[in-house]
Write a structure and sequence with these properties.
Distance between the termini: 87 Å
Radius of gyration: 26 Å
CATH class: Mainly Alpha
Helix content: over 70%
Number of domains: 1
Number of helices: 6
CATH architecture: Orthogonal Bundle
Shape: rod-shaped
């Protein structure tokens, strides 16, 4: 009896990889093994960087809050501590948005945290 290789499934698997590799440069989009390696590495980077993006945004928000609080005579860490003591539960994303787009509201929050 001849050996069965399930050719339709193998072809579909290779085709799926080659379709995903469209737009890559040179052999990365033409040769199956190179395309597969490139895609797998790209998927690793994508997984890692989805986590890393959250850290980058948090750093950005902290920098914006710090830059907005310094002219008001308080630094970031004292401001966050004061918010915690007063029970004001705004996250850093919201605080950074207020500092950037609504400075008067942010100043009121700083004043409320200071009292």
């Amino acid at each position: 009896m001849p050996r069965a290789t399930n050719n339709p499934a193998s072809r579909a698997r290779r085709k799926r990889i080659m379709l995903a590799a469209r737009g890559f440069f040179g052999a990365r989009s033409k040769v199956y093994t190179v395309a597969k390696n490139t895609l797998e590495k790209g998927w690793q980077y994508a997984f890692r960087d989805r986590k890393f993006k959250k850290r980058i945004y948090r750093r950005l928000w902290i920098a914006r809050i710090n830059a907005a609080t310094r002219p008001m005579g308080i630094n970031y860490s004292r401001f966050i501590h004061a918010l915690d003591q007063k029970g004001i539960t705004l996250n850093r994303k919201a605080l950074a948005d207020l500092a950037l787009n609504h400075p008067t509201t942010f100043k009121a929050i700083v004043d409320a945290a200071r009292k």
